[in-house]
Amino acid sequence: MVLSKTVSETDASIHSTFASRYVRESLPRFKMPENSIPKEAAYQIINDELMLDGNPRLNLASFVTTWMEPECDKLVMASINKNYVDMDEYPVTTELQNRCVNMIAHLFNAPLDESETAIGVGTVGSSEAIMLAGLAFKRKWQNKRKDQGKPYDKPNIVTGANVQVCWEKFARYFEVELKEVKLRDGYYIMDPTKAVEMVDENTICVAAILGSTLNGEFEDVKLLNDLLIEKNKETGWDTPIHVDAASGGFIAPFLYPELEWDFRLPLVKSINVSGHKYGLVYAGIGWVIWRTKEDLPEELIFHINYLGSDQPTFTLNFSKGSSQVIAQYYQLIRLGYEGYRNVIENCQENAMVLKEGLQRTGRFNIVSKDNGVPLVAFSLKDNSRHNEFEVSDNLRRFGWIVPAYTMPPDAQHVTVLRVVVREDFSRTLAERLVVDIEKVMQLLDDLPPSKPTLPEGAVKKTPLETQREITTYWKKFVMERKKTNGVC
Ligand SMILES: *Cc1c(COP(=O)(O)O)cnc(C)c1O
């Protein structure tokens, strides 16, 4: 029993604001409690516990939007009880999603006439979008192989080792082999030449990333397209390209309109983008757009008839909220091209302020590029005494959440810290963060070296082996700390 026996719904103390007046014992964590508690108590208890979560605005680990205008918040709250899938009942919401698909398809230069509707769908995020795009490629490839009387049981996909985890999920869930182009020191994106070398007759597509999660860098989709056209010509295959533009899809069109990465390149058949990243909507929305109707196999589409018209649906989820679709439409029409450009330019400038501030300290190497996603990825110049995980850990004391992580193979000996610059990360905060990072460095300088010493009798390792060992040790250490803190 959780509730203090002296408290009842009619008790005056119900209006108190402190959960401790209601709760004299710890809350049940495994079994649903026997009795009800007053709504105020439930609210207060949960609200109080949630205070211990990090502050989303200071969560610099995430690309996902944490601030929207109050007018949009109002629209979000007003539609929070609308199930998106009830297209019969909410035809206007469906219409708004279709308008978003059209606008985004035009932004990505899909070959459409002014009045033509684009092929695409709103998803829960880029992950669902990528599952759908991947399935379309797999099915198209299988159909072609069947027609040719060739085996179709060993599909593969070629990506860089820097892909986001959702590609690994796609590969495992839908039984497609993931062939990853390895990274190397100082080069943290997919090398198009190596990717094309890895393509074979079983390759359903090559996935390029516009805005690598690790350092924000854009991959060279144009070069990939050109090399792949040649290879296709030589071999008679028609291996297509998918662009994972989860974060870059709402950056490149505004900052680098001349950059050819999208449907202007003939082999790009589908593109995904996260509405909840630089699309500037709260968590829960992504988009996938196909070049033409022919690129989405008809057999994957389910048709729902309502109001005399045909509503095709192709998603993994059935029910979901409508708020994010409505919020996306709000942002597109509220900001327009001009507004998005201003927001993204501002993010880019704030990233520069941060980058220059970090460079001035003389302590860091910058691993991100200026013409990518507005983020700053950096590593310590000298990590002989303390490492990036400690910097990350200590920044928490100041409220900042800045992740440290190791690069994927073959660059796993490199550890970086990453700050994603979102719309709500102002110049003042950027300057403040530099000051706090300097404080952390000072703090670490004053501490004795914390690196583990090698066990006695250990064979002397090469610096690279030692570095890898230390990195593994710290990763484990940090994970365990997180587990015991219950933060994971
Ligand atoms: C964030 C991200 C994803 C996953 O997107 P969600 O919208 O979080 O599902 C996939 N790929 C890249 C490159 C990303 O940055």
TrEMBL record:
Gene3D superfamilies xref list: 3.90.1150.160, 4.10.280.50, Type I PLP-dependent aspartate aminotransferase-like (Major domain) (3.40.640.10)
Class of enzymatic activity (EC top level): lyase
Source organism, top-level taxon: Eukaryota
Keywords: Decarboxylase, Lyase, Pyridoxal phosphate
GO molecular function, one term: pyridoxal phosphate binding
Family: Belongs to the group II decarboxylase family.
Name recorded for this polypeptide: Glutamate decarboxylase
